[in-house]
Specification:
48% of the residues lie in helices and 14% in strands. It is of the alpha/beta class and 567 residues long. Helix 1 runs antiparallel to helix 3, helix 4 runs antiparallel to helix 5 and helix 14 packs across helix 15. The two termini are 31 Å apart. 45% of the residues are buried. The mean pLDDT is 93. Bound molecules: phosphoenolpyruvate and magnesium ion (MG). Magnesium ion binds next to helix 18.
């Protein structure tokens, strides 16, 4: 039995598929029959083109035309006569093997393109790497994992899953287990939005499991069993059925209000990464979107997304939410979130470095493009904008000023912009929580990002397993920062929400309610369970519970207090 972190609820028993990138070893050998080697190369090139076509076709079921564009770029490159011509010439002139000739071509072209200080050419370098990697694998008989080809119930086992890996997951993938990551790593966030089970940070999982093993993935308790016996399989299947039944029973709450038994109403919203998650929020009774992580738009793109691309994306989400509130977070990139087309500066501690609003205020063109797109989309729904990683009042004022400038320019150009866009901020740096009463004079609302707030308060990297015990949402120090944030908002007539993972934790809901949190934003799949809890609680009792919890010494004491109150 392996232990990891339950990151996205669910239980599944299925065959494992180990996601491993093949290791390509190139040898500098000569060939006796050059013509045969050229023929071998031509066959491998045809297979490469067919493989890319196949991946594109299967991915088309889930990806948008923009997301599919990368495959067209790869097909164009594979069909480029210069590529075939140069590699064949190397085989014929030097008598080397085809894989070696392909590798030499790739190295030369990648060096050439990467040396050019231009985004377009850097992208081409990435395309060449991708296409020639496929070609070399085909020449050497190595298989490249193709997640889109999975056609039976499967659990993926990987070191970690990148956003492009998760984009390829189809309906047969019932869950995944990864070697690294925590509750708030991005693969965990994706699993929640796809509603599949995930156990992350499961050290040793890659060594313990091979493709084809039957595994029981229990993402309620964070355990994995490899090749369990029949009785164990039956027990897990029963657990899965019970979980699904409970999930089904919650559906009666879809259209109900989130109101305590003594009449205190709060808002339960969903976190999304893009339009594809909107349906899940509505289906699960979300009263709005409390966090739209726009970085996925940038991370899934081959270059900085244009104003028009972004406008379409925001409009689609606002329309999809049918007039319900949508809180869009401006670009939160850096830390663990990188872009293919932008080189971040080397830093010792990227999580403490050049990221999010810091980058946007430094490179205002990027920021302005996003704000213009948002303003233009604002007439299609109820838009709120928030800035991530705000540390100082000056940063908020500067960011808000850029927003006002772009809004005014658009209006001067005759473009319609809604006049009720709320502009708020994430509270995810302790400095902002401490000064919440001051920030609330400028911001229309707060959304508490506990994933970062906890890592910065505890000085514990959210990606590190070794210090994951310090991810302590129930630590009184964290509760006091949250209380201070909510008080700061309310004393200025503003509202306070939370979009970090803590908002959806059943054992946190009563305390947060008692502290006066107005909006809880979580994974869509957690909304109904949270509503059931809210409806079972008394606001007056929760206020007392929260006051007790703020006065405890440790997280365990707080949890004991909550459990006693809920018993
Ligand atoms: C947070 O920090 O709590 C948050 C919601 O933002 P992210 O997880 O995207 O950093
Ligand atoms: Mg954050």
């Amino acid at each position: 039995m392996l232990k990891g972190i339950a990151a996205s609820a669910g239980v599944s028993v299925a065959k494992a598929y180990k996601l491993e990138t093949p290791k390509v070893v190139i040898e500098n050998t000569t060939v006796a029959d050059k013509a045969a080697e050229v023929a071998k190369f031509e066959a491998a090139l045809e297979k490469t083109k067919a493989d890319i076509e196949g991946v594109k076709e299967r991915a088309a079921k889930r990806l948008s035309p923009e997301e599919l564009a990368v495959f067209d770029a790869h097909l164009m490159m594979a069909g480029d006569p210069d590529l075939a011509g140069q590699i064949k010439a190397t085989i014929e002139n030097d008598g080397v093997n085809a894989a070696y000739a392909t590798d030499a071509y790739a190295t030369m072209m990648v060096n050439l393109f990467e040396s050019m200080d231009n985004d377009y050419f850097r992208e081409r370098a990435a395309d060449i790497k991708d296409v020639t990697f496929r070609l070399k694998c085909n020449l050497l008989g190595l298989e490249i994992p193709d997640l889109t080809a999975i056609a039976e119930p499967t659990i993926i086992v990987a070191y970690d899953l990148t956003p492009s890996d998760t984009a390829q997951l189809n309906e047969f993938v019932e869950g995944f287990a990864t070697e690294i990551g925590g509750k708030t790593s991005h693969s965990a966030i994706m699993a929640n939005s796809l509603e599949i089970a995930a156990v992350v940070g499961c050290s040793g999982v890659l060594d313990a499991i091979k493709t084809g093993d039957v595994i029981a993935l229990d993402a309620l308790d964070g355990v994995i069993e490899v090749n369990p016996d029949e009785a164990t399989i039956a027990a897990y299947k029963e657990k899965a059925a019970k979980y699904l039944k409970e999930k089904e029973e919650l559906k009666v709450l879809v259209n109900e209000k989130s109101i305590t038994e003594d009449g205190h109403e709060v808002e339960l919203a969903g976190n999304i990464g893009g339009f594809k998650d909107v349906e899940g929020v509505l289906k699960n009774g979300g009263e709005g979107v409390g966090l739209f992580r726009t970085e996925f738009l940038y991370m899934d793109s081959e270059n900085w997304p244009t104003e028009e691309d972004q406008f379409q994306a925001y409009k689609q989400v606002l329309e999809g939410m049918q007039g319900k509130k949508v809180v869009v977070r401006t670009l939160d990139i850096g830390g663990d979130k990188k872009l293919k087309y932008y080189d971040f500066p080397e830093e010792m501690n990227p999580f403490l470095g050049y990221r999010a609003i810091r980058l946007c205020l430094d490179q205002k063109d990027i920021f302005r493009t996003q704000l213009r797109a948002l303003c233009r989309a604002s007439i299609y729904g109820k838009l709120c904008i928030m800035f991530p990683m705000i540390a100082t009042v000056q940063e908020f004022r500067d960011a808000k000023a850029v927003f006002e400038e772009e809004k005014a320019k658009l209006i001067a150009e005759g473009v319609a912009v809604a006049d009720d866009i709320q502009v708020g901020m994430m509270v995810e740096i302790p400095a902002a929580a401490m000064l919440a009463d001051k920030f609330a004079q400028y911001a229309d609302f707060f959304s508490i990002g506990t994933n970062d707030l906890i890592q910065y308060s505890m000085a514990a990297d959210r990606m590190s397993q070794k210090v994951s015990y310090l991810y302590q949402p129930w630590n009184p120090s964290i509760l006091r920062l949250i209380a201070k944030t909510i008080e700061g908002a309310h004393s200025n007539g503003k509202w306070a929400g939370m979009c970090g993972a803590m908002a959806g934790e059943p054992n946190a809901v009563p305390i947060l309610l008692g502290l006066g949190l107005d909006e809880f934003s979580m994974s869509a799949t957690q909304i109904l369970a949270a509503r059931k809890i809210v409806k079972s609680l008394s606001y007056e009792e929760c206020k007392k519970l929260a006051a007790d919890c703020l006065d405890k010494d440790t997280m365990d004491e707080v949890l004991a207090c909550v459990k006693a109150a809920m018993a």
